[in-house]
Each structure stands twice: as C-alpha cells, then as structure tokens.
Design goal:
alpha+beta; NADH Oxidase; 2 domains; four-stranded antiparallel β-sheet; 16 helices
Length: 367
C-alpha cells in the first residue's frame, strides 16, 4: 500500500529526480584528507581494520596517534547502543573484531603488533595500546577476505553444512565455537527464541527508537555519516528500497506496520539456514570480550571462501528474560557472546555497508 501510493505520488519525471539508487561502499572514495601525516602503511592498516563489523554498523572505534606506528585504540561513546547494549558488551566485541583486522593487516604488510591492554571496564575510553614493529610480511589472512567480508541476510540455503567445512571454520577453537545444525533441538530453540526476542525488542520503544537513529534512510544521509544501516545493507532492493529512501523516516520505524514487517522478515530469515554458530568466551572481562570479538572475526573471514554466509542475530542476548535460559538449553557453561545464523549461498554478493574514512576516527594526541 505504501509503495504503490509512493509511486503514484511521485509520478512522471519526478521519479528521475528522486533518490533512485542504494548507496554502496563501492560508490565512495576512501580518500586521505586529514590523515596526510600518516604513513601509507598506517593508512592501509587502519582502513582494513575499519572493515570489521559492529552492531547497527556504528563503528565504535577511535584511534589516538601517539607517534608513527604507535596508537591507542579507543572506545567512542557516541557510538554506544544503550537501549540494547547497556553494559557495552557488544561495543567491546566490535572493538575486538577491529583489533583482529588490524593485526591481520599489519602482518600482511610486514609488521608485528605489540599489545598492552589499557581498559579495565567496558566503559573506559582507552582500550588497547598497540605498537607496530617491522617484521617479515606473512600472509596470515588474505587481505581480500577483509575487503570482501559482509553480513548476508537473505538467500540462505537449507543444505546442512558439510563436516569438512565445519571443521575448517571451527579449527582449533572448538572450546569456544559451537555449530548447531538446523535439524537439532537446540537450533530449533534458537529459531523460536530469536523470533520472540525480536518481538520483545521491536515493541520496546527505546530499542526501536535507537534502531531508527541508526538507519540512514536517504543516500544523502548515508553519504554524510558513512555508518549505520542503509537500504543496501538491509538488503531492501528495487522499488521497495526506493520507497524507503524517499518516503520513510525515523517516525516510520515506530509505526506498527513497520514493526510487523520487520518481524515477518525475521520469521523468513530463521526459516532458512543450515543452523547456527555460537561463540563463547572464558569470562565477561574486557580481555575475554575482546578475544571473543577477535574469534568472531577470524570465523567471519573464513566463510566466504566456502560459500557460507553469516548473519549475527544478537537479540536473544539483548533480552535478559530469554538470555538466562540459553546455557541450560544449549548445554554450554561458558559465556555466550555471539549467535550467528549460517548457511550456504548460491552466489555471494559484494560488500555494501559503508565505512567512515580513516580521518574520521583518527585523532592526534596533543604534544
């Protein structure tokens, strides 16, 4: 109904003046303005680090430049999600993914990272001191896998994951990475509770308002902020994407028809997969959360080569009434940090989520 009315309202030549195309990562230049004093290696390492995933694509990292090849990775409180992540657990996980990318990029270019943990709590601004020391380059991970990594939401096949693929993805981390095949009782429980957690969250106004604040409805806003959720990253294509970019705004997210469409989308998503990956941590300390984020990123960078997609669905972990039941049902005593829907794809789409230029998250310490 909304889409049809939008088309009629726009009509004729006005359509050609409207916001007609999803803004994608490939549409934007990275640029070096504002970071001219960084060495080319530093710019490349920090750009690759910034391709890490984060909740609502908030990109919650800051980098303070102490001196060449000596940085402090920080926690940008402007990027927090207090409605769904009040303790900044997910922020630390995202920073862990950033650190993993940073290390892989440094290794590929010919540097070793020397780390000093600075943060004692999830709210500390300064998280990790890192010094890059010249070393022999080693291809710890193909840099292309960082550039091509993306979250996929649709198009999952129901074929079970092959045992050799699961073994490759889990590797030596079987203590912390657990695969739940779709046919199992545990996976069916995750399916059901993911829908319920989304229902609770979708009708909790602060969480829904927070989501609205991070949706970049228009290409102009997407280009301005280069973070958040775009129609491209939400996989809203064609005329539906055109309608959202031209006729939707933050107020739309709080309307019941938007909430119900979102829930129906979740139902479709959980009905199609090969199951789930659960990632756990040893404790809930800052160090353990950062390592869990690194662990997730290591997994994420393996899947594309196997034609497997991952879709983090964190809502269960954000709703305490549901989260409490998880360890007993899943038989896991550890701290659960990630729940990722997994499945094969017929074809793998290119990355679309936007990234802020390096100059937007780097700052130089006062001398």
């Amino acid at each position: 109904m909304i889409l049809g009315g939008a088309i009629v309202a726009t009509g004729g030549g006005a359509y050609w003046l409207s916001d007609r195309k999803n803004l994608l990562r490939a549409d934007l230049e990275q640029g070096i303005e504002g970071v001219e004093t960084l060495q080319p290696d530093e710019r490349e390492i920090l750009f690759l680090a910034s391709l890490a995933p984060s909740g609502h694509n908030t990109q919650p990292w800051l980098v303070e430049l102490v001196e060449p090849y000596h940085w402090i990775v920080g926690n940008d409180r402007r990027k927090w999600l207090p409605a769904v992540d009040p303790l900044q657990r997910e922020t630390m996980l995202s920073l862990g993914a950033f650190l993993q990318n940073l290390e892989y990029a440094a290794h590929a270019i010919g540097y070793e990272c020397r780390w000093t943990l600075l943060a004692a709590t999830n709210q500390d601004e300064r998280v990790m001191d890192v010094r890059l020391v010249k070393a022999v380059a080693r291809d710890a991970v193909n840099v292309a896998s960082m550039k091509l990594r993306r979250t996929v939401r649709a198009g999952f096949l129901n074929d079970p994951l092959r045992q050799e693929d699961v073994a490759h993805l889990v590797g030596a981390e079987m203590e912390f990475i657990h695969h739940l095949p779709a046919a199992g009782r545990e996976a069916r429980f995750i399916n059901e509770q993911t829908i319920e957690a989304n229902r609770l969250q979708t009708y909790r106004d602060p969480a829904q308002q927070e989501l609205a604040d991070w949706i970049r409805f228009s290409s102009a806003d997407a280009r301005k902020y280069r973070d958040g959720l775009t129609t491209g990253s939400m996989e809203i294509e064609g005329m539906a994407g055109w309608a959202v970019r031209n006729f939707y705004g933050k107020a739309s997210v709080l309307k019941n028809n938007f909430r119900e469409r979102s829930l129906n989308q979740v139902r479709r998503e959980v009905s199609a997969s090969a199951g789930w990956f659960i990632i756990t941590s040893e404790t809930e300390s800052v160090a353990s959360l950062l390592e869990a984020g690194r662990r997730m990123q290591r997994l994420f960078l393996k899947v594309r080569a196997r034609g497997i997609a991952l879709h983090p669905m964190t809502q269960i972990l954000e709703e305490p009434s549901i989260k409490r039941a998880l360890p007993a049902v899943l038989g896991l005593g550890e701290n659960i940090q990630f729940i990722l829907r997994a499945g094969y794809l017929s074809s793998y789409p290119p990355p679309v989520s936007l990234r802020r230029p390096v100059s937007w998250f780097v700052r130089r310490l006062p001398q």
